């Protein structure tokens, strides 16, 4: 069935390139997918939960979103099979949200005579997908800073698998009122049905089928949907050009700010008694200037026109989807830095799924240097500095930075907190 679906998409698109770029669109189309893609009326998986075709919810998602033998990065895949990433070999996928495969990469190393274990579970959100070897978070019984039970965490904890939330022609998020004609996740392309705004009497799916107002899982209920756009070809190496996800800030018509959305499960991260790095707050002129001028450690000669880096994304102070679509690029044709009214939020520092560093951070905070002596630190580099390599091969370190050439950084590059704070 999947092969036939692939052939159909390629023929319908009129080009192999477009077909490969929009496979996920063929199934979900911005809303609910084909019922039989996830459910089987008469031959469900042995567990029989909701007549799913796999043992559990996340395993059902991964029947399409992970494929063993994938050379990656490939279309809509968000997980690398464990057999495709032996010791020293990184996960394959490079989506803006990251690759869940990092959860299966545990590293052992010694720093100052002390043996250290960096468990793979620390690398992101621990979805439970029994058929694919993803298990409950071994440390956190509930979401850090919240009450959501880890034993219930699955893809559908954050995404509505039936894609009911839609953006109407007037900009309001609703559960009904017009049919979903296409995804609302991608850059504007009227030939594929992504024109902005949606035509009267139609609707576009919300970004990435995210949970919206009233969506309840475990002990939490979401209050709205955040705004964003990505290029249609988004799962790709950034070895030559970056993939820019254009994150927006909208708080009306069923929208919420990104930090508010994340705080559904992590409320104490925003409280006076929790972790209070500003989120959903304007950058201000000082941070804006630092972001614009910071190129790398020791180099503050940059300018706003070329300031953007996908390793430290900011959130544009707009809920206009046409604007966001025009900024979602993968060819470095729009690298503008922030306005002072643009914002910092959770995804400025973390990846949504999982990444190569602890806590799904976009860069290594476990050591002083991201680059050491003009090399990505690794167990295979000389000199080997354990607190910088952290048990990884240099290939794994480079993959965590989405394959950027090491020359993009200073010969002794410090952590990217400095992109906003410029203290190095």
Describe the structure.
With 424 residues, the chain is of the alpha+beta class. The chain has one domain. 17% of the residues lie in helices and 10% in strands. The strands form 6 sheets. Strands 4-3-6-5 form a 4-stranded mixed sheet, with no helix packed on it. The chain has a 3-stranded mixed sheet with strand order 9-10-12. It has a two-stranded antiparallel sheet with strand order 1-2. The protein is globular and about 60 Å long.
Rg calculated over all Cα atoms: 21 Å
Inertia-based shape? globular
Sheet of most strands: 4 strands, mixed
User: How many structurally independent domains?
Assistant: 1
The total of beta strands comes to 15
Average predicted confidence as pLDDT? 91
Helix-strand category: alpha+beta
Taking the alpha carbons of the first and last residues, their distance comes to 54 Å
Could you name the ranges where pLDDT drops below 50 across 5 or more consecutive residues? 1-24
The share of residues in extended strands comes to 5-15%
Question: What is the H-and-E element order?
Answer: HHHHHEEEEEEEEEEHEHEHEEHHEH
The largest beta-sheet arranges its strands as 4-3-6-5
Helix content: 10-25%
Structure characteristics:
about 425 residues; 4-stranded mixed sheet; alpha+beta; 15 strands; globular; 3-stranded mixed sheet; 11 helices
How is this structure best summarized?
By secondary structure, the protein is of the alpha+beta class. The protein is built from eleven helices and 15 strands.
């Amino acid at each position: 069935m999947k092969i036939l679906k692939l052939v159909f998409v390629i023929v319908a698109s009129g080009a192999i390139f477009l077909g490969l770029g929009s496979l996920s669109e063929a199934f979900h189309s911005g809303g609910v997918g084909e019922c039989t893609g996830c459910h089987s009326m008469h031959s469900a998986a042995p567990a029989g939960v909701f007549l799913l075709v796999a043992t559990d919810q996340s395993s059902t998602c991964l029947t399409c979103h992970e494929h063993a033998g994938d050379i990656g990065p490939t279309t809509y895949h968000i997980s690398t099979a464990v057999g495709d990433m032996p010791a020293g070999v990184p996960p394959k996928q490079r989506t803006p949200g990251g690759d869940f495969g990092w959860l299966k990469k545990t590293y052992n190393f010694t720093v100052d005579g002390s043996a250290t274990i960096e468990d793979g579970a620390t690398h992101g959100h621990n979805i439970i997908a029994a058929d694919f070897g993803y298990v409950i978070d071994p440390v956190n019984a509930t979401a850090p800073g919240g009450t959501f039970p880890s034993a219930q965490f699955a893809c559908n904890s954050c995404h509505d698998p039936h894609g009911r939330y839609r953006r109407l022609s007037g900009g309001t998020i609703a559960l009904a009122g017009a049919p979903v004609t296409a995804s609302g996740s991608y850059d504007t392309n009227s030939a594929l049905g992504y024109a902005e705004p949606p035509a009267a009497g139609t609707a576009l799916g919300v970004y990435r089928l995210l949970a919206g107002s009233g969506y309840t899982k475990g002990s939490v209920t979401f209050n709205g949907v955040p705004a964003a756009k990505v290029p249609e070809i988004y799962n790709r190496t950034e070895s030559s050009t970056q993939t820019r996800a254009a994150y927006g800030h909208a708080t009306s018509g069923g929208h919420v700010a990104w930090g508010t959305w994340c705080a559904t499960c992590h409320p104490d991260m925003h409280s006076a008694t929790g972790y209070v790095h500003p989120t959903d707050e304007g950058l201000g002129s000082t941070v804006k200037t630092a972001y614009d001028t910071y190129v790398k450690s020791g180099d503050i000669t940059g300018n706003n026109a070329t300031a953007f880096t996908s390793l430290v994304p900011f959130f544009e102070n707009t809920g206009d989807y046409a604007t966001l679509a025009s900024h979602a690029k993968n060819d470095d044709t729009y690298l503008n830095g922030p306005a002072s009214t643009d914002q910092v939020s959770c995804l400025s520092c973390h990846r949504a799924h999982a990444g190569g560093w602890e806590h799904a951070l976009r860069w290594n905070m476990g050591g002083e240097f991201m680059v050491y002596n003009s090399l990505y630190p690794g167990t295979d580099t000389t000199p080997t500095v354990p607190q910088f390599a952290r048990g990884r091969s240099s290939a794994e370190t480079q993959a965590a930075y989405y394959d950027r050439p090491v020359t993009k950084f200073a010969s002794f590059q410090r952590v990217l907190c400095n992109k906003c704070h410029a203290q190095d």
